[in-house]
Design brief:
This protein is an all-beta fold and 337 residues long. It contains one helix and 28 strands.
């Protein structure tokens, strides 16, 4: 399973398109806000009735599987709490409680279970914060007008499908053919807000509800995120006739920009855009020189996040003295594997 990352505000409510800050004096910085970056935030179930004993049945199924690793599970028979491994075993993936011989619930005894479950996500080992501009539209013609002139469009979607059938003139995106009226359009791009890194972030604490031991990587200073940068002919490594996996210097690669060459010959690879890891179908020959050119998002990495846990992140808006827009806006995103 992959991590399941969601952003919540300080009150614990899920949020989207979060980071929008109003006009600031040039050189000014807003007060920070704090959000929670959760990996597979759990749902709590209390005293779920899973069945009634008959003296024979030993296995009882919960309504949900994927119990959060490390979270408590309380199994009761006729109101008496039982002990895991002594009285029963628990399959946290399937959500099946199996009683051991001699501890099978007798006829008429009610079995209840309290537990915490999620989606079964894995630990988010590599977590990055980035900022891009995202605008949504409902199609009513052949074009849409963005809030600011983009310096780069990263992706355009119509009804969640990526399309390249458009042209850009100033702030106007024109489609050919025109989308059907009512279609959902998403444009992801960068403008001055992103390029000048007007959104600043830092990790500021953890939420570890089940005490799994999530270490606090609180960062001492804010770092601007947003925009992208270009790398040309980065030296990735030298072939040895055996190694197929290599790592780029920078993570969070802008998809569609990567060109990998082996001894100056362009070669196809599989890219993990989050980690910047590339994989060849066949290992490059011994002493073959591997280079890569690509764009990458300017991001900030925070610590790993276990399932059922969160890291706290502080955000603030900043208006550089070089800013020209009256309003800076960017949308916080989290990329994780």
């Amino acid at each position: 399973m992959i991590p399941k990352i969601d952003i919540y505000n300080a009150a614990g409510s899920a949020v989207q398109d979060l980071a929008s800050f109003g006009s600031r004096p040039l050189g000014g910085t807003s007060n920070p806000i704090e959000v929670q970056i959760w990996n597979d935030k759990s749902t709590t179930v209390t005293n779920e009735a899973v069945g009634t004993g008959d003296g024979v049945t030993d296995a009882f199924s919960l309504a949900n599987g994927n119990l959060i690793p490390g979270s408590p599970c309380v199994v009761k028979v006729a109101g008496t709490t039982k002990t895991e491994t002594t009285h029963y075993s628990l399959d946290r993936v399937t959500g099946i409680v199996t009683f051991t011989p001699g501890n099978i619930p007798t006829a008429g005894q009610a079995v209840t279970v309290s537990y915490h479950y999620g989606a079964g996500a894995a630990t988010a080992a590599s977590v990055y914060l980035l900022a891009r501009r995202r605008q949504t539209f409902v199609a009513s013609g052949a074009s849409v007008t963005l809030a600011a002139t983009p310096s780069r469009i990263y992706e355009v979607q119509i009804n969640s499908a990526v399309t390249t059938d458009y042209t850009l003139t100033d702030k106007v995106v024109t489609f050919d053919p025109a989308p059907t009226p009512g279609d959902a359009i998403l444009v992801i791009y960068e403008d001055e807000s992103c390029n000048l890194q007007m959104l600043q972030v830092k990790s500021s604490g953890v939420v570890d509800p089940f005490t799994v031991g999530l270490s606090d990587d609180a960062q001492g200073s804010y770092l601007g995120i947003g925009g992208s940068a270009e790398v040309t002919d980065e030296s990735v490594g030298v072939g040895d006739d055996a190694t197929t996996v290599f790592s780029l210097l920078f993570p969070c690669v802008v998809e569609g920009t990567l060109v990998v060459k082996v001894d100056d010959v362009e070669t196809e690879v599989t890219l993990d855009p989050v980690t910047g890891e590339i994989e060849f179908a066949t290992a490059p020959a011994d002493e073959a020189v591997i280079t890569a050119s690509y764009r990458y998002y300017r991001v900030r990495q925070i610590g790993a996040i276990n399932p059922g846990c969160a890291r706290l992140v502080q955000l603030r808006g900043h208006a550089p003295t070089t800013a020209t827009l009256s309003r800076g806006e960017a949308h916080l995103e989290v990329w994780a594997v």
